[in-house]
Amino acid sequence: MTMRELKQLTIKNLIKRFSEKEALNNFNLTVEKGEFVTFLGPSGCGKSTALNCIAGLLPITSGEICVNEECIDNGIISTPPEKRGFGMVFQNYALFPHLTVFKNVAFGLELKKTPKNEIQEKVNNVLKMVHLEGYENKFPSQMSGGEQQRVAIARCIVLEPTLLMLDEPLSNLDAKLRNDMRYELKTLHERLQVTSIYVTHDQQEALALSDRIVVMKKGHIQQVGTPEEIYSHPANLFVADFMGFRNIWEGKIEEFTENGAETKIVVNIGGSKLTSHTRFNGNSRSLKSALEETFKSKQAICTAIRPEDFLIGKGAINNLKCRADIVEYLGQISHVTGVLDNNNQADFRTSEKITSGVNLDLFIPPEKLLIFPKEGNPHV
Ligand SMILES: Nc1ncnc2c1ncn2[C@@H]1O[C@H](COP(=O)(O)OP(=O)(O)OP(=O)(O)O)[C@@H](O)[C@H]1O
Ligand SMILES: [Mg+2]
Known about the structure:
Layout: E1 8-18, E2 21-32, E3 36-40, H1 47-55, E4 62-67, E5 70-73, H2 81-84, E6 86-89, H3 101-111, H4 116-129, H5 145-157, E7 163-167, H6 175-192, E8 195-200, H7 203-209, E9 212-217, E10 220-225, H8 227-232, H9 237-242, E11 250-259, E12 262-269, E13 272-278, H10 285-296, E14 300-304, E15 311-312, E16 319-329, E17 334-340, E18 345-350, E19 359-363, E20 370-373
Parallel strand pairs: 3-8, 3-9, 6-7, 7-8
Antiparallel strand pairs: 1-2, 1-4, 4-5, 9-10, 11-12, 11-14, 12-13, 14-20, 15-19, 16-17, 16-19, 17-18
Helix pairs in contact: 3-4, 3-5, 4-5
The chain binds adenosine-5'-triphosphate and magnesium ion (MG).
């Protein structure tokens, strides 16, 4: 029994303050039916606050939350959580310890006075879906963390929510189980197609599960995009750093030229000239104009390069000399931390055998070198 169909969830200019503290500022987002959207960001950036506002568990300070363009919350009129038809899964499972798995999952249906035979059928179906057939009479304390989290998910989806919200549901599990459950969640979403909002601070999890990712910092949205967009075209230094870019070196732009669809930017990093070739697309246009502005006003920029994007040897351009200081063996590859001849620290990964103390040549393919204004984003 679904409350009503959710075609679109819209959050407009949402602000949430806890007395003086502004936990969310000008949060704008539209989630379409069937989408899997993830809120990603470091601890304290406002992910849970955003989720709890949408759920109706926290009063909003101002702004509007709408379902199918109908307002469900504007801070004055607020639909109570149980009337929103949304489901929530928490990090700590929040199961009833004195109830069996069956009773835990049936609980919400019983509250709704669902007929007994219907409860039986629905609970059996949903337990099958999360691979917990045969666990009906166990108690939560007799189950592993992963199994308990599956009960929590079953308890939520048995009520057929129009929006499923999950707040760091895998963070209490060990690495192996987390991967298994990630796969289970992905399969479940593909099967049920239920509109979902997922909260995590784990970029791998966000990349693997999401249709779109919302990267947040200190209550401000930094970027909204597909996993590919966020991974390859971070909007600013904060997103780049969070998505695994390293080698943040400071310098100035010396040349800024359009080269067909590509923009060529030459930077000077402590005497080393490095060239970047970037294709700015629709979403990264504002970065392009910010960089052009930085060039004109001679403001500082920072580079960002993934450790795995360096090549060893001499290239046509972007050559650097490096002394390897620390070599961490990671199996297939090693992570090397070294010092460049321009005195910046280099972090790179290679499958070649490197010993610490050795001097080597490195180069960076120009399309792998990202440039960002050092300042420019007031929230970074
Ligand atoms: N009830 C509250 N009263 C006062 N401040 C709060 C309250 N709840 C959250 N905050 C503050 O709001 C900010 C956002 O908190 P929130 O719990 O949304 O972060 P989060 O992104 O979910 O972090 P985590 O990854 O640690 O769960 C934090 O600075 C937090 O201290
Ligand atoms: Mg949280």
